[in-house]
Automatic annotation (TrEMBL):
InterPro entries: Peptidase_U32, Peptidase_U32_C, RNA/ubiquinone_mod_enzymes. Gene3D superfamilies: Translation factors. Belongs to the peptidase U32 family. It holds the Pfam family Peptidase_U32. This is U32 family peptidase C-terminal domain-containing protein. The lineage of its organism: Bacteria, Pseudomonadati, Pseudomonadota, Gammaproteobacteria, Aeromonadales. It comes from Succinivibrio faecicola. Keywords: Hydrolase, Protease. Residues 352-432 form the Peptidase family U32 C-terminal domain. The keyword Ligase does not apply.
């Protein structure tokens, strides 16, 4: 039996806390956006000083930091790029993630020794494109999300010397590898320069509903014999602006994709020889980066050992807020298996951050700033890099007054809970488990 190569597990870092959590929970590397030059302006907390500290921490652990410079800038912005890339190059990140050929050319000429990974924004869907970018001097291609497992396999076989990265988990855009115009159309915020506001997730109000036969619509799918025509209002940001819509019986959440989860096909991706598996989510919480990193760390290690993916991996991903899961275009699906036609809001999951453990006394007592309500009888846990530790609030007391409490109502309250184990405050997350 051929020994399987262990791929890099690459996690999102929207801040230094994300980086710290992801690396301690099993990620081999993180990717962080350079301010104003990556596609996650919203929620991107990384500044120059953070890159300095983050790269130092990652390298001390034998891990990597990839700096994201993947916007597609208009001509007026290009001149400012040289100063930005000079400043970033001094910090010695392990790679730049880029999409724009002009910016790539600047970096190749100025810093030929810094590896460049081709962003998913470049929409690479065939081996010829991969070979082209390899000739240009890039060391890795992040393939488009529109590829099947078979196509990824074909590309890797034709390009064995080029590193191949694919998305393994996270939100999916209704776009070609993220090149989307919906946010710009509805909200005048260009997703291709980092200002996406997730317009595809919005709910819509409906009026002037008309049920028509298929004869009324030239392009109507005759498998269904009814179509709904209506006017739509995106009420959150555009009240009073009505758009005409045509809809089949599946509903009006036409752009609301389920989230990607590749655990069901992870063994195949590893067998193909994919070099890096990427978790999407720089705008998600540090806990998300930690939890999903642990889920895939456990899964990857088990597969390489020749074992089944442990139940804990599935338990974690199914406990995290999501829009439901799909393997998307990696496998063939009916539309209802990839689209969420039922709701425009995430499944809240069963794990809720309910407190921040601020310190621990000599006797083990935890000093907690309450974040969400929990009660004496709530099922609680402390999420750690080695797994979930049970926690009981049976003997909870008010941190200021010292009196016993039955309920910690929410933000603004501080409580003490006795505990008999020493924990690492920098990586431990207090959770309420709602299952």
């Amino acid at each position: 039996m051929t020994e399987l190569k262990k791929p890099e597990l690459l996690a999102p870092a929207g801040s230094l806390e994300h980086l710290h959590m992801a690396l301690n929970y099993g990620a081999d590397a993180v990717y962080a956006g350079v301010p104003k030059w990556s596609l996650r302006v919203r929620g991107n907390g990384f500044i120059r000083e953070d890159f300095i500290k983050g790269i130092e921490e990652a390298h001390s652990l034998g891990k990597k930091v990839h700096a994201v410079l993947n916007i597609i800038p208009h001509v007026r912005r290009v001149k400012a790029f040289e100063k930005v890339v000079d400043e970033m190059a001094e910090l010695k990140p392990d790679a730049f993630i880029m999409a724009d050929p002009g910016l790539i050319d600047i970096v190749r000429n100025r810093y030929p020794d810094i590896p460049i990974h081709l962003s998913v924004q470049a929409n690479t869907v065939n081996a010829g494109s991969v070979k082209f970018w390899q000739k240009v001097g890039l060391t890795r291609c992040i393939l488009a999300r529109e590829l099947s497992l078979t196509e990824i396999d074909m590309i890797k076989q034709e390009c064995p010397d080029m590193e191949i990265e694919v998305f393994a988990h996270g939100a999916l855009c209704i776009a070609v590898s993220g090149r989307c115009l919906i946010s710009g159309l509805l909200s005048h915020r260009d997703a291709n320069i980092g200002a996406c506001n997730n317009s595809c997730r919005y709910g819509f109000n409906v009026r002037n509903v008309h049920a028509a036969t298929s004869d009324d619509m030239i392009a109507f799918d005759k498998a269904n014999d009814t179509i709904i025509c209506a006017d739509l209002e995106e009420s959150m940001h555009h009240p009073g602006e009505w758009m005409h819509m045509e809809e089949d019986l599946n509903g009006s959440y036409l752009m609301n994709s389920k989230d990607l989860c590749t655990l069901p096909v992870l063994k195949k991706l590893i067998e193909i020889g994919v070099d890096s598996l990427k978790i999407e989510g720089r705008s998600r919480s540090p806990f998300y980066s930690a939890a999903i990193s642990r889920a895939y760390r456990l899964a990857i290690d088990a597969i390489v050992r020749g074992e089944q993916i442990p139940d804990e991996s599935y338990t974690i991903v199914n406990s995290i807020p999501s829009r439901g899961y799909t393997t998307a275009l990696l496998e063939p699906h009916r539309p209802d298996q990839t689209q969420d036609y039922e709701t425009n809001s995430p499944n809240p999951g069963t794990l809720q951050i309910c407190g921040e453990i601020q310190s621990q006394d000599e006797d083990g007592t935890l000093n907690i700033a309450v974040k969400n309500r929990f009660e004496k009888g709530s099922k609680l846990g402390i999420f750690t890099p080695s797994g979930m530790l049970p926690l009981s609030a049976e003997n909870m007391v008010d941190a200021k007054k010292g009196n016993a409490l039955d309920v910690a109502p929410g933000t603004g309250y501080f409580v003490k809970i006795p505990y008999d184990k020493k924990i690492d405050l920098s990586t431990s997350v207090m959770l309420r488990i709602d299952n």
